[in-house]
Specification:
The protein is of the alpha+beta class and 146 residues long. The protein has five helices and four strands. The longest helix is centred in the last third of the chain and has 20 residues. The radius of gyration is 22 Å and the shape is elongated. The N and C termini lie far apart (94 Å).
């Protein structure tokens, strides 16, 4: 008589081909980071320079998580919304490091140095300038209405 442990054989490993587009709708959000890391590393090893991640429009939670992960990944050179014909803001186009290019250092990938060599606080500079200008214009308009 077989025991329960003998009846349960290990699950069969399925080899999934890596394509330039990955639809994230069918995956568990808790598995997002390891899935994306494996996918990006395999796509890079296969020589893809650009891939597309489909996360859908929905509430934007998955998109936000994907974009945050991409900012920290050492193989990602740039990421942006897909053009309208390829999904608009429901998909993200990712530009990977070329085969000759070394991955970003861990320091850059962890956010100590931001995009294009700028520190994380400098990424907020345009927003803060716009906010300051908006407040100044609003105050001036209020003063003129007196």
């Amino acid at each position: 008589m077989k025991t329960k442990a003998e009846d349960e054989s290990p699950p069969e490993v399925v080899q999934v081909p890596v394509e330039p587009t990955l639809d994230l709708h069918t995956y568990d959000p808790r598995e997002l980071e390891p899935l994306l890391d494996d996918y990006l590393r395999e796509a890079h090893a296969m020589g893809y320079e650009t891939v597309r991640l489909i996360h859908g429009k929905g509430t934007g939670v998955l998109r936000t998580r994907v974009c945050l992960f991409l900012t920290r990944h050492p193989l990602v050179r740039a990421a942006h919304d897909a053009p309208p014909a390829l999904g608009s803001w429901g998909a993200t186009v990712v530009h990977l490091a070329s085969a000759q290019e070394a991955p970003r250092s861990k320091e850059t990938a962890d956010g100590k140095e931001g995009a294009r060599g700028r520190g994380p606080l400098l990424r907020w500079k345009p927003l803060m300038i716009g906010l300051g200008i908006g407040m100044a214009v609003g105050a001036a308009l209020l003063w003129l209405r007196r």
